[in-house]
Amino acid sequence: QEKSSCLSAALFGEDCEISHDQLYELLKYAALGRSHNATQPSWCHISHQSHLAGVVVVILNEMSQLHFYKFYLQFKHLRRVFRHRFTLTPSANFPSSLYGEGTNLKPQNTAQGLNSTSGDCPPKSSGLQRNPIIRKYGEKKQGLTSYTLTLEEQKKNDYPIKGSPECKGYIYTECDQQRTDSSPLFGLDCEMCLTVKGNEVTRVSLVDAQGQCLLNELVKPETTVMNYRTKFSGITKKMLLPVKTKLSDIQTRLKKLLPHDAVLVGHSLNSDLQALEMIHPSVIDTSLLFARNAGRRFKLKFLAKAVLGKEIQCEERLGHDPAEDARAALELAQFFIEQGPAKVAELNLEKLLTDEKLAEASQNKAALQARGCRVQKQLNEPPRVPKACFLDCLQVTGQKPLLLGREEPDPSGLCQSNPSSSNKQILQRALEDVPQSTFSIIQFSLGPEDIASHPLAGLCAKVRSKLTDMLTIYAGPFEESFCLKSVKKEFEMCGPIQSLTVVAETYQPYVCIQYEVLEAAQLAVESLNETEVAGSCIKVQRPVTAAMLDCEVWIKELELDVENEGVIYVAGLKKSLTEADLQEEFSQLKDLETLFLPKDLQSGKHRNCCFLKFWKPQSALAALEVLNGWTVKGSKLRTRNALASGHLWRWIRQMNHSNGKQGGSIVHEKREQLSDSEQDLRKKVKRLDQYIKKLYGSLQNNTLCIVLFPGANSMHGSQSGLGLMGIKDGRGRSA
């Protein structure tokens, strides 16, 4: 009997956040096996990789984990089929992080869509016409205004835009004067640290067209620093202690320093302006100016060396020097403008980058040999280019990567498709072409108008409010002289409490309790409603709001979610119990796979609840019967089916942590009537789910399928992405 491939992953609780490097690691191994230095991923395991029928990656462009939760009920197929899920760290350049930075794959426009045949290695360029810089700008020399980003390009690359709802509170530089080819250039660079708020500026540098430093200042973040990122920022806790300069001070100084026709230059300048919370209408972004294929970007360090012959960001130095980086970006823009696209294209930067990586790999190999490295097998292999040619490797092995998308036609993009192509047309092409391909990337997109009319900040507020309501219960009425401590003790038996407040507006006292986990709130409603607590027979209910009318539907669908299959929630644990104690107590339960004990973000101490995951769903049901009312070292347990045991649990915890500094009071936003645009968006999302269902149904058994919500960057911090994956089995589900 033919062996089936199987995917296993420890994506439970704390371990469900995956980086793009780890995702790349999985894709490379799934497609190539042990050839081309591909190894089993460190975070999951594919059994019998050689028996995989193929790999299909579905990308839902411009969507994040936030969209999955907002439209959870509409994504019926995704949540009932894909068992393995993970939070995906957001990336400024998603295609590059997914495909690899050195991909030379050139898609071909065919009648069937974008289909990259790969029998041969990519052909060498026959002249400058194929260079992405020439395709984007032409060969003739032009003035600087030809290289400033258009408003559409700024929107596409997450630049803060004047009048955008997401940029409320941002400072406008008021540089509104008409730009000419003689307008002054200014280089700008910032270093950021990770704080509770997100990325906050801790150092700012501004240089003029002559390279003179006009501003080089440390900045005190508004909120607590969680990670100084010293390796890159060069910032330490000690450096910031005496600093008094605030972000508002820097904003004022920059406004005074910049003339009304100033053009700002930087490398991925959108990140700097977002962190500065400033809007500037005219920018040159050197990461986009030196165009590449596949939406990838050259690093500033490489460009400075290859184009200017300068070494920056030296490893001997602690962190980057923002003045040095600002000056390098400025000089790169000046070089491009003065020399013109043809001269820049003649540098053949792609080849220089490949040569540099090969040389580096060769040096590393020589160094290992000099130290007498014991891994002889690795030494005998050709020098490898780390994460540089994933799709190229597919071509070398004779596989046929299929790339289908609905992106805007962009000479530097991997998916050059007709923008008039609908998701339905892309689906039809995929149904025809995926069976002939061993590795497919299918990109679906919502319309630009849908993204524009539903900004991330608005979606985030709605999802946050919905989850807060679901975590909240009201209990009462109580006697005037009731014991609040007794009430808290009783309700804590259902799970960890985020906040507890007395409602004073009612005739008799009620309490409002916000839990940290969904299961605790649901358990309180199920087990304490119409019971006697603190001497009163009380009613326990959730907030009565328009958004909560479908709460029971949500609870039912969460219970049916395939990720929660075989997982139960256990509350009422004594905090003195250790994980070892619980392992011993629960060891007699049949088919127990994993025990997850949540911990407090601040203290690191575990909470009074845990999740138990079983190999078989029927064993989980049996454990529910055994554990409900069971006593563990004097503590009576309460249990129920899990509702948010994996990725959702982690996200709720982060939300609670960010809300925890606001006094613990529950504020419910005013619900407005569902707009026509949101109703339309719900229909489109539901249709997308149906398209993925059809595509998944057409796949051969033993196909690895991964659905990715790439995530997005916003001024309120980054919105994480989401990945769902599984290997299709004979039942049409993922293993």
- In the CATH hierarchy, the third-tier topology of the domain at 135-352 is known as Nucleotidyltransferase, domain 5
How many DSSP H or I helices?
27
> Mean pLDDT, rounded to whole units?
82
Q: Helix coverage percent of residues?
A: 25-40%
Distance between the termini: 18 Å
Low-confidence stretches: 101-126, 374-388, 408-420, 660-673
CATH class of the domain at 135-352: Alpha Beta
Q: Strand order, main sheet: write it out.
A: 2-5-32-29-4-17-16
**Name given to the CATH architecture of the domain at 135-352:** 2-Layer Sandwich
What is the assigned CATH homologous superfamily of the domain at 135-352? Ribonuclease H-like superfamily/Ribonuclease H
